[in-house]
Structures are given as structure tokens and as C-alpha cells.
Amino acid sequence: MKRFSQIVAITVFLSAFANAEDVQRFNVQSNDTVVGIISEKELSRVIFDNDSIKQIYSIGGELYYEIADKDLYVKPAVNKPINFFVDTEKGNTYKFIVTPKDIPAVQVFIKNRSVTQKDQGSKYGGELIFRKKLSKILSASMSDDETVDFKKKSVNGRISKDGWVSKYLDSKWEGEGLIALKYYVGNLSNQPQYLNRSDYLHNQETIAVYLSDEELAPKAEGVLIIVRREQ
User: Of 231, 228, 230, 213, which is closest to residue 73 (Cα–Cα)?
Assistant: First the structure.
């Protein structure tokens, strides 16, 4: 999950909170600045309406992030305001200034009225619908948010050990023809260790693998989610 990129008159939009900081909504134009709040300790989700992320630019060591379809999942690596830029597939660029705060997972909705929705009747419609389902089940399992579309099943998981890795099955999520298995993986060694997504793609039914951290510090723990088609 850890990715770092080294690297205009700006109108600042403050978020319109939906009665709480955990949901923030912005109406923007290209080159605008989004000023918001993200969770200090948990993943926060940034959703782009009718657009997809092309590239993230951030200062190395400040931000952990993962792109899942058109959604962005972020977690701060430092406890201070963080600046980063997002380029989208439809040619828009946004600057983000986010401040970590000790609150639960946050969802940030970005809407650009100049961006029109793709024709769902096109040959890409089926793929877009599938990607949306995949993004939703990842979001639900990562934030532990049981929705109408996805149901969580508790699992009497056992801790398994393979070399330096421990793995514990926490829960199983089902809905819209998909199954997500959420694991906690730990580094049992006294040295930093690296996880590889390809190690979890051996099952032909597996269609996506999410890792909260590809590098685990000694004795540290991360989240692994394996998504499969419902049989």
C-alpha cells in the first residue's frame, strides 16, 4: 500500500459536513483545493463522482494510499496537515490539504459538475458496474461497515503461522455476487518483512487482493482482504 511520488489561482472549498466529520462533501472544479479531515488511525475513503484517479503526487513518507477503481483510500504517516495532488482520467487536477484527527474512518465525496457520467449502455457498462461492486465490498470490509448490500459473517478463525507470517481470518463479507475474506496478518520476526499480492492470487476464483501495508515492521500487523466471485 505504501507508494510515494517525489515530486493557478486556487479557490478553497470547506467541506459541508453531513452532521458529522465522518462524511464530507465537496463541489469542485478542476484546479480547486479541497480542505478536509481524515482519520488519524484508520483508513479514510475519497470518492470521485463520475471520474477515476490517474495519478497521486505526495511527499515521500507522509501518506499511505491505495487506489481501488475510482476510489482512494488514505492513511496518514505523520500527524500534521498533509498536501497531495490528484490527477484524474478526465483531465482534472485537485489539490488536497487534509488534517489527521482522532476520529473513526472518514468518507470524502468529490463532485465536479462539469464531469458527465459515462454511458452505462456502452460496451464498458458491464465492466464499470463490476468495478463499482468490487470497490463497494472492499470499502465495506475495510471500514467494517455492514450495509444493505453486503453482509458480514463472523468467523471462528484460527491463527495460522507460515515462517515469519501469522494470519487470522477475522470476517467474511458477501453480497452482489462477491465474497471478501478479511484477514489480519502479522510479522513475527524482528526484521521488516514484505508482503506480495501475487502470493495470494493462487486461487483461480480470486479477483482482487488488498493489503493495508506491503511492508510490515517487526511485530507489526496489517490487513489482508481477498475478494472472490460467489460460486
Answer: 213
